[in-house]
Design a protein that fits this description.
This protein has 8 helices and 6 strands. It has about 190 residues and is of the alpha/beta class.
């Protein structure tokens, strides 16, 4: 059986690091892992999507509509954009943070105010959290990605220490302690 995780956000939020963390962790756990990154206009705050698939044998890195077991959304509008990829009974972990996309910034569109209500209407399992506040509590707003990985870890039967060992492996040494705090905050809240 294969498990499918999508990480969605905007450029600069650390989705590539999060997918690398999952790849390292799951490979160390003995799974066959495929990771694929799809970058939009990531340098301008555009959409970034990463697919992580793991299991006994995985043949493709791509997750199609209706196949994701988990979506980890670093920003709520991105979660709404990709919710159709979630399988029936799947779960979306969504950061309640709003980041204005370019059409909103230039005044061509308005940021929807009812995104979480729209997600709830889709009849999916929603785990909403203010990951930005927890990241700041950990020491850096840039650790939203690791806060969300902490929340995702709660849904897997992988020892906590294995996650923290993988964090220490993929994060620059000077940022390990702060990221371990961020992971703990996401895991424990």
């Amino acid at each position: 059986m294969t498990c499918n995780i999508m990480i969605v956000g905007v450029g600069g939020q650390g989705s590539v690091l999060a997918s690398k963390l999952l790849g390292v962790l799951l490979t160390r756990e003995g799974y066959d892992v495929k990771v694929s990154e799809v970058h939009g206009m990531s340098q301008r705050g555009g959409s970034v999507v990463t697919y992580v698939r793991f299991g006994d044998r995985v043949y493709s890195p791509v997750i199609s509509k209706g196949e994701a077991d988990y979506i980890v959304s670093f920003e709520k509008l991105e979660g709404a954009r990709y919710v159709e990829c979630l399988r029936k009974g799947g779960r979306i972990i969504v950061n309640s943070q709003s980041i204005d996309p370019m059409p909103v910034i230039i005044g061509a569109a308005e940021y929807p105010t009812d995104i979480l209500d729209r997600l709830r209407a889709k009849d999916v399992l929603i785990d909403e959290m203010d990951a930005l506040a927890l990241a700041r509590e950990a020491g850096s707003a840039k650790s939203v990605n690791i806060v969300l990985m902490g929340r995702l870890a709660r849904y897997f039967d992988i020892p906590y220490e294995h996650w923290t060992e993988a964090i220490a492996q993929v994060v620059k040494p000077q940022f390990v302690e702060m990221n371990l705090r961020a992971f703990a905050l996401g895991y424990n809240r």
